[in-house]
């Protein structure tokens, strides 16, 4: 039995899952993320270190937290995630300025708590929502839930990106205050906390959403839900090992994760450097927020297309299409075409959204309830490890290209050398991705004759 998209809101856990995804991910400070840290007095080196701490925390906690969700219940993990989000925001909302040592360590703790929250949310929320449908015999409705969730999250992203940038700017806030007849004025040190306050409000909504969830009965590990801590930890390590072996021995699951990882980490690295790319194709910085909101609105359309693709095409064809879109976007960026260079950036965002939809749909479809959150956490771990790896490789590449340009073009300004190094670095991405995808296609084509591979890959829909 399949439900209409509107009827999904009347299924327990589904509206809560969508609300949690929106409130947890759509954060008002994202459009000013880097300068927020700097305006608190941190250096760019400290900013880089803090985000390394954040990424490392996610990598270390990703899979264990997924296993815990499968053992003690997904709701418990999600409630804990909302509480962590609340605490991480409270820390930086009210940290006093002036003592830079205190500010740094408060942000250090914020990054650890934020990383833990990201890791604990990864997989647990999807597993709870999918098993809710499976419990009712409506697992085939999962693509509709993903479609609805991604479109609503994109709408939330557009709102928070736009409003977050506006309330961060003291000139805009003062104009509004003047229009309202207020006689006071605010400074940057005041307005820089406004996006944080708004995101803190969202954390309360996220907590309300998770408290009203319930764990589906299909995934209950009753002997362990109230077991002593050492038994839970032991079971967690055992489940992690079992799931790791299952992924390696299941060609379809392995293919989905590896293809998704390959496309995601290349595209995500490009998105990280989006503002520098836009600057070099002649867009003014004042337009970046509007462009970001426009790209975010793709999420209102792409999930519907992705859902249709999963219904009409085999997984093999969809991953082939995803690979072609990824490469088309990366090749298009190389030209740095003034203004028109925004079009390949659109393909980059489309590729990321398709990757998210396909990996979620196919992994949930073939994974048993008892290990669903753990499998999804392995996916998150592989994506983040690959992203960390390409970040290290890119840092080495940009250093090499900068030195090469300094030797060849010594008369250029430092900014011109930096810009040329960036242009040169982008041309490496499509070749790097071609090699990675070619290896994967060759490997899985080579073993296509194995019955388990044929059954899981070609016939799975």
What is the structure about, briefly put?
This protein is mainly alpha-helical and 461 residues long.
Descriptive keywords:
Growth Hormone, Chain: A; 2 domains; disordered C terminus; mainly alpha; 461 residues; globular; single chain
What does the oligomeric state look like here?
Answer: single chain
Mean pLDDT over the full residue set? 83
Number of strands: 0
CATH topology of the largest domain: Growth Hormone, Chain: A
Task: Indicate the CATH architecture of the largest domain.
Answer: Up-down Bundle
Radius of gyration: 23 Å
Question: Under the CATH scheme, which class of the largest domain?
Answer: Mainly Alpha
The count of helical stretches stands at 22
Major sheet: size, sense and barrel closure? none
Based on secondary structure, the structural category is mainly alpha
- The CATH homologous superfamily of the largest domain is named MFS general substrate transporter like domains
Q: Helix coverage percent of residues?
A: over 70%
SSE series: HHHHHHHHHHHHHHHHHHHHHH
What is the distance, rounded to the nearest whole angstrom, between the alpha carbons of the first and last residues? 17 Å
Query: Please, how many domains?
Result: 2
The parts where pLDDT drops under 50 for at least 5 residues are: 449-461
Polypeptide structure, described:
This protein has 461 residues and is mainly α. It folds into two domains: 1-232, MFS general substrate transporter like domains (Growth Hormone, Chain: A); 250-461, MFS general substrate transporter like domains (Growth Hormone, Chain: A). Helix content is 77%, strand content 0%. The protein contains 22 helices and no strands. The protein has helices at residues 14-25, 33-39, 44-72, 74-93, 100-121, 124-135, 142-168, 170-179, 188-191, 194-211, 222-225, 229-249, 251-272, 274-280, 288-296, 302-312, 315-334, 342-366, 372-408, 414-426, 428-446, 451-458. α3 (44-72) runs antiparallel to α4, α3 packs parallel to α5 and α16 (302-312) packs across α18. The two termini are 17 Å apart. 41% of the residues are buried.
């Amino acid at each position: 039995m399949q439900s209409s998209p509107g009827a999904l809101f009347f299924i327990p856990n589904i509206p809560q899952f969508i609300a949690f995804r929106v409130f947890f991910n759509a954060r008002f400070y994202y459009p000013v993320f880097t300068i927020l840290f700097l305006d608190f007095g941190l250096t760019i080196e400290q900013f880089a270190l803090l985000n390394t701490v954040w990424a490392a925390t996610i990598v270390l906690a990703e899979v264990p937290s997924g296993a815990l969700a499968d053992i003690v219940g997904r709701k418990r993990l999600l409630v804990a995630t909302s509480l962590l989000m609340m605490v991480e925001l409270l820390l930086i909302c009210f940290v006093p300025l002036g003592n830079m040592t205190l500010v740094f360590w408060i942000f250090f703790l914020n990054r650890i708590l934020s990383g833990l929250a990201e890791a604990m949310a990864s997989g647990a929320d999807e597993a709870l929502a999918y098993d809710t449908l499976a419990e009712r015999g409506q697992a085939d409705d999962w693509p509709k839930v993903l479609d609805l969730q991604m479109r609503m999250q994109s709408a939330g992203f557009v709102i928070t990106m736009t409003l977050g940038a506006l309330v961060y700017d003291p000139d805009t806030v003062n104009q509004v205050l003047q229009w309202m007849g207020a006689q006071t004025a605010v400074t940057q040190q005041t307005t820089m906390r406004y996006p944080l306050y708004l995101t803190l409000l969202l954390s309360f909504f996220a907590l309300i959403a998770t408290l009203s969830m319930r764990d589906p009965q299909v995934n209950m590990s009753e002997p362990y839900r109230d077991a002593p801590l050492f038994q839970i930890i032991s079971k967690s390590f055992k489940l992690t090992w079992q799931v790791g072996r299952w992924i390696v021995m299941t060609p379809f699951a392995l293919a989905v994760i590896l293809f998704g990882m390959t496309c995601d980490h290349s595209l995500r690295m490009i998105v990280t450097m989006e503002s520098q790319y836009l600057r070099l194709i002649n867009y003014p910085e004042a337009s970046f927020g509007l462009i970001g909101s426009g790209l975010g609105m793709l999420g209102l359309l792409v999930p519907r297309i992705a859902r249709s693709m999963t219904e009409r095409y085999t997984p093999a064809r969809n991953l082939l299409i995803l690979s072609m879109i990824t490469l088309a976007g990366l090749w298009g960026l190389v030209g740095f075409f003034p203004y028109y260079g925004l079009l390949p950036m659109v393909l980059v965002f489309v590729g990321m959204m398709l990757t998210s939809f396909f990996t979620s749909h196919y992994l949930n479809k073939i994974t048993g309830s008892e290990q669903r959150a753990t499998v999804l956490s392995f996916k998150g771990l592989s994506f983040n490890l690959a992203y960390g790896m390409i970040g290290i490789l890119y840092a080495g590449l940009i250093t090499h290209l900068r030195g090469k340009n300094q030797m060849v073009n010594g008369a250029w300004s430092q900014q011109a050398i930096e810009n040329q190094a960036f242009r040169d670095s982008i041309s490496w991405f499509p070749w790097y991705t071609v090699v990675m995808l070619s290896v994967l296609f060759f490997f899985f084509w080579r073993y296509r004759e194995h019955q388990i591979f044929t059954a899981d890959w070609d016939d799975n829909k």
